[in-house]
Specification:
The structure holds 2 protein chains of 2 kinds. Chain A is an alpha+beta fold. Helices cover about 40% and strands about 20% of the residues of chain A. In chain A, the strands form 4 sheets. In chain A, strands 1, 2, 6, 7, 10, 11, 12, 13 and 14 form a 9-stranded mixed β-sheet that branches. A 3-stranded antiparallel β-sheet of chain A has the order 5-4-15, with no helix packed on it. Chain A has a two-stranded antiparallel sheet with strand order 3-16. In chain A, helix 10 (about 390-400) runs antiparallel to helix 11. Chain B is α/β, with parallel strands linked by helices. Chain B has a domain at about 5-265 and about 475-480: Amidase signature (AS) domain (Amidase signature (AS) enzymes, Alpha-Beta Complex). Chain B has an 11-stranded mixed β-sheet with strand order 1-3-2-4-6-5-10-11-9-7-8, sandwiched between helices. Chain B is globular. The chains are: A alpha+beta, B alpha/beta. The interface between A and B is large, with 29 and 42 residues.
Chain lengths: ~500, ~500
């Protein structure tokens, strides 16, 4: 089998880390999973609550077809099996923000079965992560304990909002892999438009399962499928950023190795992540675990899907990040890295494609990823807020390609456009500011002749060290205000200085 | 001369259309009679003002020759149906004073057709019981008394005891009821009324306080078969708000009454002859078979060997669903909240301890147990498998017969307190009726005779899913042959 990818060194030997994620992604939908109430974020307390969401006596759930469609779309995007027959179950427990006294979820028969996605790591390596299942379920409301000293309040706006729980296989082997998977999942659901991926609003959160085992045991697990080769796992709940996922895995792996090496045991337990300290702590142990008394919800019929409808949804799927990445590589000749960076976000990819259309793809990618992303990052802006439209950036690149300006001048023009100092067409800016390249060889020859005449020492030196010709280029550029065509300058200098 | 409150529903309906009587006159007559019948405890509350307003509105339509199928007809509503702005308690302290801001689909259908709401009818708490003794608001008393001169108070059956008693005592033209394991048919049998539990999915469950979602079904209790047919037509219909409601047309059940039953195959299952069943019931059953034969039906002996498992299966499935359905009564949002508690757990505990009666608690405990980890497979899952087999057994039987004829209940009305100490004895009341709920079939009880103590006994007809029309044909034939005209003495007023 494969070599252990990531080893954690302990004082008694090497350990391997095994990671699995359960991601809750809020379905992008106008209304809730089983009621017509609005699922929109940010309304006043209890404004988006229907009789069903408040579990009034005699109220019944009715499935929202659009949410089902979104789950199917996500399943297809995860290259997963769509189960044409699935069922909703009740998960019973008491909590004030759970009005029914049970959550409607899918237990034994989820709508989406096994799948697999590609995950790119910073190293450039690509791993495959298996999807165990995806199921639909209701979100709970929110309990608020800090409004009054002796009272608690309940906001049911989220009660009944549709969630997809996406469960991975224990295929990730490091903090980097875990966070890269989370990031890729977010990219996929955002592409599909099935979840907005907005972590600050709680639209996406992960329960992070971590265990450690002795080096080599993971492969035995893979060979046999026997979980006894893996260590006892802990589950850290509600981790809501890519960075925190990484921190949780790092912390938990190190903590577990320390506990085991000092003769302790790992309890199968639920833990909480403390953002401030970057550590996890026990939330509840296995002994305190609820008996949820799952059983099929008798208020709902089994969910039976028409295979033709699933195919219709498949046919309407947008191009996904992986497909787009591969197309960018073949169509525009981009490197895997540039293609990934551009394809990861739908809006970025669309911007790039507009710039690249009919132009040099590599040059376009370079301008978008280096100049534009660099400037945007510095300002903390997204692509949608870019002061430079794709059409204007394309126009700028055209000026370079046509030899009207040099790359260096183009950067100056870009800076003027980005700061908003210049709002016009790049060609007009160049014209107005007199930045056009000098391609008149006579004019350049004249400048070159002057410089050669004034610097005999350097002329001698360049014959010994041809690389010092750069100094002459610099001088020419200085005298022409950077407007001389670099190719022409080079050609003339070579000829006059006798450099090969 | 007989007043409007002495008429059958069909007669009153016709008299109203012909303007021989006004809805307000009928409504006032019923309200006056309800006032005198407080001893029966059939109503939890009356809605006199609302009733008169509705009656006046109906009269305005009737005067113009307009109005729906039930225009101006005063009805009683089981307190399990949510009624907008009107207290809906489900017979429980837990929902004391709870007035929903919505109207159940079934009652909304009745008001759409012009019916008038007289009040809310007493029932076993959350529809759990067969004698009405579990109601927080006191038990209903059966209008019928034994002819032994003892004047013992008898049960009207349950859980729709208020519905059955009010129809038997003519405290409404007809009543709504619900049936989870026999809660329409058993009280109908014990009160000499007609009770119909339609096919699961025929009536919407939306707005009916849930007991066991996969078994609950609304239906009417009425004075005769025609009245029941008229009621069901208004109550039934597809409702997109209930995922288990079936989208199929509602036939005119009244139109089939009197149609010939000649050639219908009537199945008689030997397994419904149980130990300890009174001889009179056996005799009545045999009589019923003969009546159907005389009407031209073909009698077919059939076997439903799984019948003996129906009751145990029911007492796993129903409590399991109930334990989950009743979790919402937690003191957080509406209804009762205990006044004393120190934290959220004790708030739940104290609220539910105060709010629920013993029978409800017993079923919540049973239901919680059978769904627990380690017991789910042995109880709930196995019960569901047997339930499926019971359904298959009926499907097979109905490939050979059109209707099945059985007794409705294993005994006539019994004395209050006689069975309340022994839950298993009480549960046996449903032995003939639970099968239809487990299989989702339509079933009805028709009064067929009196026992030697002068108490009414009913016979049950079961039909294929959504074949209520054939069931009504059979019921009508049975009714004609039985010619049941006995009425209780009005000792209460």
């Amino acid at each position: 089998m494969s070599e252990p990818r990531k080893l954690l060194q302990g004082s008694t030997g090497d350990w391997e880390v095994v990671v699995g994620l359960e991601v809750h992604a809020q379905v992008t939908s106008k209304s809730k999973l089983f009621s017509g109430a609005s699922a929109e974020y940010g309304a006043g307390p209890n404004e988006n609550v229907s009789l069903v969401d408040a579990a009034m006596p005699g109220m019944l759930p009715v499935i929202n077809k659009y949410c089902v469609e979104q789950a199917i779309r996500t399943g297809l995007g995860l290259n997963a099996k769509i189960n044409l027959w699935s069922r909703f179950d009740r998960k019973n427990y008491f909590y004030p923000d759970l009005p029914q006294g049970y959550q409607i979820s899918q237990y034994k028969d989820p709508i989406v079965g096994e799948g697999e996605i590609e995950v790119e790591l910073d190293s450039g390596e690509t791993i495959k992560v298996g999807i165990e299942r995806l199921h639909l379920e209701q979100d709970a409301g929110k309990s608020i304990h800090d409004l009054a000293p002796k009272e608690s309040y309940v906001d049911l706006n989220r009660s009944g909002v549709a969630l997809m729980e996406i469960v991975s296989k224990p295929d990730m082997r490091s903090a980097e892999e875990g966070s890269a998977y989370f990031s890729k999942l977010r990219s996929i659901v955002r592409y599909l438009g099935t979840c907005d991926g907005n972590m600050e609003e709680g639209s996406m959160r992960a329960d992070v399962n971590v265990s450690v085992c002795r080096a080599g045991n993971y492969d035995k697990f893979r060979e046999t499928g026997d979980f006894k080769f893996l260590g006892t796992r802990t589950e850290t709940k509600n981790v809501n950023s890519i960075r925190y996922v990484k921190q949780v895995i790092d912390y938990e792996a190190r903590r577990q190795v320390e506990v085991l090496e000092s003769g302790g045991t790992i309890d199968q337990e639920t833990r909480l992540f403390d953002v401030k300290s970057g550590t996890t702590r026990t939330m509840r142990s296995k002994e305190d675990a609820h008996d949820y008394r799952y059983f099929p919800d008798p208020d709902l019929l089994p969910l039976e899907l028409d295979a033709a409808w699933v195919e219709e949804i498949r046919a309407g799927l947008p191009e996904l990040p992986d497909q787009k990445k591969h197309r960018f590589m073949s169509e525009y000749g981009l490197s895997a890295y540039d293609a990934l960076v551009l394809a990861a976000d739908k809006a970025n990819a669309a911007y790039f494609e507009e710039v690249a259309k009919g132009r040099d793809g590599k040059l376009a990618a370079n301008w978008v990823t280096v100049e534009l992303f660099g400037a945007l990052n510095k300002e903390g802006k997204t692509i949608a807020e870019s002061p430079v439209s794709a059409a204007r950036l394309g126009g700028l690149i055209d000026l370079i390609k046509d030899g009207v300006i040099s790359g260096k001048i183009a950067k100056d023009v870009f800076a003027l456009m980005f700061t908003g100092e210049e709002t016009g067409d790049p060609a007009d800016i160049v014209e107005k500011r007199g930045l056009k390249q000098v391609t008149d060889t006579g004019a350049i020859e004249k400048v070159v002749d002057e410089i050669i005449a004034a610097n005999p020492k350097q002329v001698e030196q360049v014959k010994e060290k041809p690389k010092t010709m750069g100094w002459f280029v610099g001088q020419v550029m200085q005298k022409t205000g950077g407007k001389a065509n670099p190719q022409a300058v080079n050609d003339i200098l070579k000829k006059k200085l006798g450099v090969e | 001369m007989a007043g409007p409150a002495d008429m059958k529903l069909a007669e009153l309906r016709d008299a109203l259309k012909k303007k021989e009587v006004t809805s307000l006159e009928a409504t006032d007559a019923y309200l006056a009679r309800m006032d005198k019948a407080k001893a029966l405890n059939a109503y939890v509350i009356d809605t006199a003002d609302k009733a008169r307003d509705m009656a006046k509105a109906s009269d305005a339509k009737l005067t113009k020759g307009e109005g729906g199928d039930l225009e101006g007809v005063p009805l009683g509503i089981k307190d399990l149906f949510c009624t907008e702005g009107v207290q809906t308690t489900a017979g429980s302290h837990m929902l004391g004073g709870f007035a929903p801001r919505y109207e159940s689909t079934v009652t909304a259908n009745l008001w759409r057709d012009g019916a008038v709401c007289l009040g809310k009818l007493n029932m076993d708490e959350f529809a759990m019981g067969s004698s009405n003794e579990t109601s927080y608001y006191g038990n209903v008393i059966n209008p019928w008394r034994r002819n032994d001169g003892g004047n013992a108070d008898l049960t009207p059956g349950g859980s729709s005891g208020g519905s059955a008693a009010s129809v038997a005592a003519r405290l409404c033209a007809a009543a709504t009821a619900t049936d989870t394991g026999g809660s329409i048919r058993q009280p109908a049998s014990l009160t000499g009324t007609v009770g119909v539990k339609p096919t699961y999915g025929r009536c919407s469950r939306w707005g009916i306080v849930a007991f066991a979602s996969s078994l609950d079904q609304a239906g009417p209790i009425a004075q005769d078969v025609r009245d029941a047919a008229i009621m069901l037509k208004s109550m039934a219909g597809h409702d997109p708000k209930d995922s288990t409601s079936i989208d199929c047309p509602v036939p005119d059940y009244e139109a089939v009454l009197g149609q010939s039953v000649k050639g219908l195959k009537i199945g008689v299952p030997k397994e419904y002859r149980i130990d300890g069943m009174p001889e009179e019931i056996e005799k009545l059953w045999a009589e019923g078979v003969q009546w159907m034969k005389d009407a031209g039906c073909e009698i077919v002996d059939i076997s439903l060997p799984l019948t003996k498992y129906a009751l145990p299966v029911y007492y796993i499935v129903a409590p399991a669903e109930a334990s989950s359905n009743l979790a919402r009564y937690d003191g957080v949002k509406y209804g009762l909240r205990a006044s004393e508690f120190k934290d959220i757990t004790s708030m739940y505990e104290n609220t539910r301890a105060e709010g629920f009666g013993n029978e409800v608690k017993r079923r919540i405990l049973i239901g919680t147990y059978v769904l627990s980890a380690g017991y789910y497979d042995a109880y709930y899952l196995r019960a569901q498998k047997v339930r499926k087999k019971i359904f298959d057994e009926f499907t097979d039987a109905f490939s050979k017969v059109d209707l099945i004829l059985t007794p409705s209940a294993p005994s006539a009305a019994f004395g209050l307190g006689e069975k309340s100490d022994d839950p298993v004895q009480m549960y046996l009341n449903d032995v003939f009726t639970v099968t239809a709920n487990l299989a989702g079939l339509p079933g009805a009880s028709v009064p067929a005779g009196l026992d030697k103590q002068g108490l009414p006994l009913g016979l049950q007809l079961l039909a294929k899913p959504f074949d209520e029309e054939t069931m009504f044909k059979g019921m009508y034939a049975l009714e004609q042959a039985a010619n049941f005209t006995a009425r209780p003495n009005e000792w209460w007023g």
